Amino acid sequence: MIKFYILSLLLLASQLLSCKNTKTTSTDVTYNVSYLYLDNLFPSYKDILIESESDIFSLDDEMRLLVKNKIKAGNNIDLKDQVGNLVDEIFSNENISLDYVYGANLTAKQTYHSGTANCLSLTILAYALATEANMDVKFQNIKIPEYWVRNKNYNMLTGHVNLLVSQKNNRDRKFLFSKGTLQIDFDPNISKKHLPKKLIDKRRVLALFYNNKGAQALVDVDYNKAYAYFKAASKVDPSHSNTWGNLGVLYRLSGKVSNAKLAYQHAIKLDKNNFTAKTNLSIIYKMEGKLNKADRIEKLLLSQRMNNPYYYALLADEAFYDHDIELAIKHYKKAIKLNKYVHEFYFQLAKVYFQSEQMALARETIKKAISVNKAPETENRYLAKLNYIKYVESIDESIN
Is 42 helix (H, G, I), strand (E, B) or coil? Predict the structure, then answer.
């Protein structure tokens, strides 16, 4: 399973991106949405070159040769072996050897030649290579609890997508791992969970790509570019609720509060479970003095989130950002109580202890993160942090 990051501006709990598939039907998007656009507010948005579907998914001759020689490796190769070859080519040091870079919102060709990828661009590259290898590949959305990570002044709402694979030349053949169809899955921790899954089409993936590009532009305070990408996302997949929520964020940051409100309301109409858009709408209600409406939304959201450990991790992160150490520790401990198997919770709590000069607690907590974590590359990072904590402790002891 591939995890891709979706920006969720939480300056005041504002949404940027999400990958949840909406439950709307085709009739839901026949309404006139032209009133939701503000072209005049972003006069140079038309100058932004938006990547086409072909730009995003196409391969060049070198990549096609790689598929022929390294992935297909003969006409009778088993699908499982093909998928194994594909994954090896992407990650082994002798081949593409991709490095994860958060802001690498790249096309398949750009990802291949740069050797960098974020989670969505990795998904796109894997899809393009698998399709060239004559696999029948579909995108699949994994519905996960709300989960945020911070990037500078922004919190990122994350989502998961994986690839469901079969062979075109033998559709009756079934390939099973455990009880399911063969999947290209890069996140073994999530794949072990029985989470709801739903197929999504390429239009939705294009919308996600455009939203990620728009979100990065918004972080970079390039509002014309952000608007260009968000509008492109809304055109390619009008039923994607979170695109409209992202436009709402852009409008609010641009001082167009009434337009932001309309965008949030449309996002909620498309998906009643778009909690981030609802949070944003409650903020606007507060700005308008409609406290009862805001309170009703907040109580509903709290009832939905109170058992989500990632929500408390978000609150802890916000408290830490605001230099409220005691509150941050309280929320991280609550997150761990709800789910003691998430290594990031321990790592973040260790950071709080370290910043507050509670070295012994920081050391023990980072050890717990190491014991819970299963990824070797993450373990190396944690070990480096642990060694640094020990080094600081040794200096303190020598001084005292």
Answer: coil
Q: What is the model's pLDDT at position 150?
A: 65
Q: For residue 140, which of 116, 118, 123, 156 has the smallest C-alpha distance?
A: 123
**Distances, alpha carbon 159 to alpha carbons 3, 18, 52, 134, 400, in Å:** 6, 7, 23, 27, 48
pLDDT, tens digit (0-9, with 9 covering 90-100), for 109-124: 999 999 887 878 888 9
Tokens of 395: 């200096």
For residues 197 and 140, the answer to whether their CB atoms sit within 8 Å is yes
Cα end-to-end span (Å), the chain: 50
Kind and range of the H or E run holding 181: strand 180-181
Give the whole-angstrom CA distance, residue 276 versus residue 260: 13
Spell out the domain ranges in the chain. 2-7+50-207, 309-399
Residue 367: how many CB atoms within 10 A of its CB?
16
What is the domain class of 2-7+50-207 according to CATH? alpha beta
Task: Tell me the residue type at 141.
Answer: N
Tokens in use for 305? Answer: 């989130």
If 0-12 CB within 10 Å is exposed, 13-18 middle and 19+ buried, where does residue 131 land? middle
CA pair distance 385, 365, nearest whole angstrom? 11
- 309-399 fold: 1.25.40
Q: What are phi and psi of 194, to 5 degrees?
A: -90, 80
